[in-house]
């Protein structure tokens, strides 16, 4: 089953980024760590979905820095296209909401957390981007 496009946010703060642990409620990828986000609804843009999901899940608004390369991934039971955005907090303090737990981690700590397979190419691209941050500030756009 193809569930369509899913958006996620790499929310940066003080050299770290936010990850969220999925609940162990019997659904797909329970207890895995992930970037906050969710499904893009029919007729909705990826950016609009990101804004909505972050408001619903974390009660925050963000400034988008850039979009990373979308990842097509197939799990045994479903497939998806994951669209990640680098962001900074604009308003609010992240609240766990639908997640069991939130943590701010550095890129060097990723190996200590169990991420879904679809997130691994995003983490690899993000690690590469961290070496070249000089040109991002001119490309930022507000998303709220």
From TrEMBL:
<dbReference type="GO" id="GO:0008413">
    <property type="term" value="F:8-oxo-7,8-dihydroguanosine triphosphate pyrophosphatase activity"/>
</dbReference>
<dbReference type="GO" id="GO:0044715">
    <property type="term" value="F:8-oxo-dGDP phosphatase activity"/>
</dbReference>
<dbReference type="InterPro" id="IPR020476">
    <property type="entry name" value="Nudix_hydrolase"/>
</dbReference>
<dbReference type="Pfam" id="PF14815">
    <property type="entry name" value="NUDIX_4"/>
</dbReference>
<keyword id="KW-0479">Metal-binding</keyword>
<keyword id="KW-0234">DNA repair</keyword>
<keyword id="KW-0235">DNA replication</keyword>
<dbReference type="GO" id="GO:0046872">
    <property type="term" value="F:metal ion binding"/>
</dbReference>
<keyword id="KW-0378">Hydrolase</keyword>
<dbReference type="InterPro" id="IPR015797">
    <property type="entry name" value="NUDIX_hydrolase-like_dom_sf"/>
</dbReference>
<dbReference type="GO" id="GO:0006260">
    <property type="term" value="P:DNA replication"/>
</dbReference>
<dbReference type="InterPro" id="IPR000086">
    <property type="entry name" value="NUDIX_hydrolase_dom"/>
</dbReference>
<keyword id="KW-0227">DNA damage</keyword>
<comment type="similarity">
    <text>Belongs to the Nudix hydrolase family.</text>
</comment>
<protein>
    <recommendedName>
        <fullName>8-oxo-dGTP diphosphatase</fullName>
        <ecNumber>3.6.1.55</ecNumber>
    </recommendedName>
</protein>
<feature type="domain" description="Nudix hydrolase">
    <location>
        <begin position="1"/>
        <end position="128"/>
    </location>
</feature>
<dbReference type="GO" id="GO:0035539">
    <property type="term" value="F:8-oxo-7,8-dihydrodeoxyguanosine triphosphate pyrophosphatase activity"/>
</dbReference>
<dbReference type="GO" id="GO:0044716">
    <property type="term" value="F:8-oxo-GDP phosphatase activity"/>
</dbReference>
<keyword id="KW-0460">Magnesium</keyword>
<dbReference type="InterPro" id="IPR047127">
    <property type="entry name" value="MutT-like"/>
</dbReference>
<keyword id="KW-0515">Mutator protein</keyword>
<dbReference type="GO" id="GO:0006281">
    <property type="term" value="P:DNA repair"/>
</dbReference>
<dbReference type="InterPro" id="IPR020084">
    <property type="entry name" value="NUDIX_hydrolase_CS"/>
</dbReference>
<dbReference type="InterPro" id="IPR029119">
    <property type="entry name" value="MutY_C"/>
</dbReference>
């Amino acid at each position: 089953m193809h569930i369509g496009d899913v958006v996620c946010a790499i929310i940066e703060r003080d050299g770290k980024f936010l990850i969220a642990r999925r609940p162990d409620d019997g659904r797909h990828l329970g207890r895995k760590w992930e970037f906050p986000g969710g499904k893009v609804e029919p007729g909705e843009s990826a950016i609009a979905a990101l804004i909505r999901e972050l408001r619903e899940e974390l009660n925050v608004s963000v400034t988008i820095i850039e979009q990373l390369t979308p990842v097509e991934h197939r799990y045994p039971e479903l497939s998806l296209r994951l669209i990640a955005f680098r962001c900074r907090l604009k308003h609010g303090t992240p609240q766990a909401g639908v997640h069991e737990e939130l943590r701010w981690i550095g890129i060097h700590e990723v190996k200590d957390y169990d991420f879904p397979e679809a997130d691994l190419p995003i983490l690899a691209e993000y690690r590469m981007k961290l070496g070249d941050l000089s040109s991002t500030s001119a490309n930022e756009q507000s998303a709220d």
